[in-house]
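Collaborator request, handled under Task 6.
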Amino acid sequence: MTAPGERVDNSPGDLPTGSLGVLPNNLSNNPPAKPPAKPPAKPANNPPTKPSGFRQFCVLFNRDIKQELRTRQMLSSMGIYALLVLVVFGAAFAHTGPVATSGVAAVLPAGTPASPPTSPGISLISISGGLMWAMIVFTSLLGLARSFKAEKEADGWEGVLLVPLDRSLIFLAKACANLVFLLVVEAVTIPLFYVFFLSGLELAASFWLVAGPLLVGSAGIAGVGTLLATLTSGTRGTDVLLAILFVPVIFPLLYTVVAATTAALVGSPDMALDYARPMVLAAAYDLIMLPVCWLLYDFIVST
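Structure tokens returned to the collaborator:
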């Protein structure tokens, strides 16, 4: 207790404390202590996921297709070259005398008595398969030689090789793009070939089987040609060297597809022997050569 007249000092230091000697929070000058802040969470150090092989293939394939649709260098050059080959073939067979069909007499004007020709003539149907594939091979050579032209001119090939991806995907995408371009050119030139050389002749009922050799042969040409075009793209005289390497390598396939095409156009009582056997050999060529090209592509590009 305080004496009468004595001043009472109510400073905070003299205030009564709690049972533990600590001022209550509402009487203290200091704010309540905050809990320690948590350290910021570190970002997860996860490496970027690598695109799948199919995704990489789609990117490369779309790049080739879009580039060709923008420039149209391969399609235009291949189409014009195929037309020139047809003109040359037409001029070559314009003065060869009477043309015989496959077991059918040549068409004569109305009222003209049929008589045996003085010369045996040419069975145009029997050689039409060879003419068709000669046009396709020469046209594909021109397209394959130009398939790496854009990469070489803009130094884009080195950039593609620096990308961490499977080199065999480059082969697969480029071969599929070349196959698409070749099939587009064939879809235009094969009907023209029929109009120029086969429209006045009687074809066999099995002529629609020509689609089989065209697909199998075009796939082999695109696959083998892509590998050889890559091998010769950095050399002098690319066109000549590509032709020297391409024709001998592709000859077994060319021989079988010509036989199958001729059998489909002419017709045969034994189609299992004249058509099916060459088709089996051509398919076997593709099944052997295409995986070999796919496996060798990484080695060829690396060296």
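The cover message to the collaborator said: "Residues 53-105+120-302 form one domain. Strands lie at 99-100, 122-123. Please let us know whether this matches your experimental observations."
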